[in-house]
Specification:
Layout (H helix, E strand, L loop, with lengths): L4 E5 L2 H13 L4 E5 L12 E5 L7 H17 L4 E5 L12 H12 L4 E4 L7 E4 L2 E4 L2 E2 L18 H8 L3 E5 L1 H5 L2 H13 L2 E6 L4 H10 L5 E4 L28 E6 L4 H12 L3 E4 L2 H5 L4 H9 L8 E4 L4 H11 L1 H21 L2 E7 L1 H10 L4 E9 L2 E6 L9 E6 L8 H7 L3
Parallel strand pairs: 1-3, 1-4, 2-3, 4-11, 5-10, 5-11, 9-10, 12-14, 12-15, 13-14, 15-18
Antiparallel strand pairs: 2-16, 6-7, 7-8, 16-17, 17-18
Helix pairs in contact: 2-3, 6-7, 10-12, 11-12, 12-13
The chain binds adenosine-5'-triphosphate and the ligand O=C(O)[C@@H](O)C(=O)CO.
The site of the ligand O=C(O)[C@@H](O)C(=O)CO has 12 residues, from α1.
Function: Catalyzes the ATP-dependent phosphorylation of 3-oxo-tetronate to 3-oxo-tetronate 4-phosphate.
Organism: Azohydromonas caseinilytica
InterPro entries: 4-carb_acid_sugar_kinase_N, 4-carb_acid_sugar_kinase_N_sf, NBD_C, NBD_C_sf, OtnK
Length: about 425
């Protein structure tokens, strides 16, 4: 059977978020970490290729995404889904616009819907403006993001700054009238010479409408929300069949490099509940200290079923001060390098159930663990499932991994996640 949907995700937590929504809506999903080898065969309704392209140079993001597109099309992918962040994380230069435009060119797509809405996680789009809960994106904690601060809530404006093609709007009044009205509006935009249509969505019903409306379009640019409306086009229905994972006994740990508001609160909650934690200081890494070595020495003898937390997570002011001293990119790279060395060292010392918080951080950790593919299991919170992954560091049984997007999860996430495996 050929692949119904080929997905390209711009970060690793985003990829598991999408795989989770597709699996729950009834698709058999495989998630690959990076581009799989040319001879890799897959038997799935959807394949999600997880890239780490959100914050690299636009040219590199385009090249990686086009390579993923070629791989997916060579395996018969009927429709392409470019998964972006539900908070539209990007800079003035991209990478959402340049990648979307390159994919549209390659696919000959003349009108492309764009919708990051994920109402289950309080991300909604109205009149083309993105809301996080009851706040405009630009008033939310996303304005302080260390790598992609989001200071404009108008997605039409944000995307237009990143694209050559014109960007228009399919507003909620149209979406409410149903799939036929959405199709007609997209057609009208196309006739006006618009290439990208930002589509409003405030509830799951709107996403189901979009799913029907976009059944025949070659390319969608979306958060994970739109995915819930696509399996219905193939006669698939919601299912929990895909969520059984093998039991993998072993020690437990959490590695958090996310500085998002939710992760900050989750770190505080974990420590307040009496969890043991080690704070990683970026300035000590920059001074050349072997911070990963010190952390792993501390962990030795403490690893058990009681999870240990290792975090660089810090409040916006502390992050800004580190970035002012080290530079934004250098700070990110240093911290990611150390946290990923810690993750690998932990697994080599017996950790088999690992939560990683933060998209970039997850990308770095999963690469250090040489994970090539993951199987999606039960959902912990919307957008965050447990997954099973083979890794040379983990031996024959592999390990259980939960990759948490920065702002996802309830405040007790780090405790709750392991409760689900008990
Ligand atoms: N204390 C710190 N000071 C400066 N930079 C930090 C600090 N802690 C973490 N970082 C860096 O901040 C970035 C956080 O990005 P990451 O994608 O991991 O989290 P996030 O943005 O909250 O998650 P998501 O992308 O899933 O929303 C990483 O590059 C990380 O290395
Ligand atoms: O869409 C989201 O918010 C997440 O899947 C994500 O991409 C965060 O990095």
């Amino acid at each position: 059977m050929s692949m119904l949907l080929g997905c390209i995700a711009d970060d690793f937590t985003g990829a598991t978020d999408l795989a989770n929504n597709l699996a729950r809506a009834g698709m058999r999903v495989v998630q690959t970490i990076g581009l799989p080898g040319q001879d890799t065969a897959v038997d799935a309704d959807a394949v999600v290729v997880a890239l780490k392209s959100r914050t690299v140079e636009p040219d590199a993001a385009v090249a990686q995404s086009l390579a993923a597109l070629r791989w997916l099309r060579a395996r018969g992918a009927g429709q392409i889904y470019f998964k972006v962040c539900s908070t539209f994380d990007s800079t003035e230069r991209g990478n959402i616009g340049p990648v979307a435009e390159a994919l549209a060119d390659a696919l000959g797509a003349d009108i492309v819907p764009v919708c990051p809405a994920f109402p289950e996680n309080q991300r909604t789009v109205f009149q083309g403006h993105l809301f996080v809960g009851d706040l405009l994106l630009s008033d939310s904690s996303m304005r302080h993001h260390p790598l992609t601060p989001m200071t404009d809530a108008s997605l039409v404006r944000v995307l237009q700054r990143q694209c050559r093609g014109r960007v228009g709007l399919v507003d909620h009044a149209v979406v409410r009238r149903g799939a036929e009205a959405v199709r007609a509006r997209m057609q009208a935009l196309r006739d006006e010479g618009v290439r990208f249509g930002v589509v409003d969505a405030v509830a799951n019903d709107d996403l189901m409408t979009m799913g029907r409306a976009f059944a025949r379009l070659p390319l969608l640019v979306a958060g994970s929300g739109v995915a819930i409306g696509l399996p219905q086009n193939h006669g698939l229905v919601p299912s929990t069949a895909a969520t059984e994972l093998p039991r993998v006994p072993g020690a437990r740990a959490i590695v958090s490099g996310s500085c998002s508001a939710a992760s900050n609160a989750q770190v505080v909650d974990f420590i307040q509940r009496g969890g043991q934690a080690f704070a990683v200081d970026p300035l000590r890494i920059a001074a050349g200290e072997d911070v990963a070595g010190a952390v792993l020495a501390w962990a030795e003898g403490r690893l058990s079923a009681q999870p240990l937390l290792f975090y660089a997570t810090a409040e916006p002011e502390a992050v800004r001060s580190v970035q002012a001293r080290l530079g934004v990119e250098a700070a990110g790279t240093l911290v990611e390098g150390t946290l990923s060395a810690i993750a690998r060292g932990l697994v080599e010392r017996g950790v088999r159930q690992l939560v990683v918080a933060g998209g970039e951080t997850s990308g770095a950790c999963v690469q250090a663990l040489q994970v090539a593919r993951m199987r999606v299991g039960p959902q912990i919170d919307p957008g965050v499932p447990w997954c099973h992954a083979p890794s040379p560091a983990a031996g024959a049984q592999g390990l259980l991994l939960a990759l948490k997007s920065g702002n996802f999860g309830t405040v007790d996430f780090f405790t709750k996640a392991f409760g689900l495996l008990a």
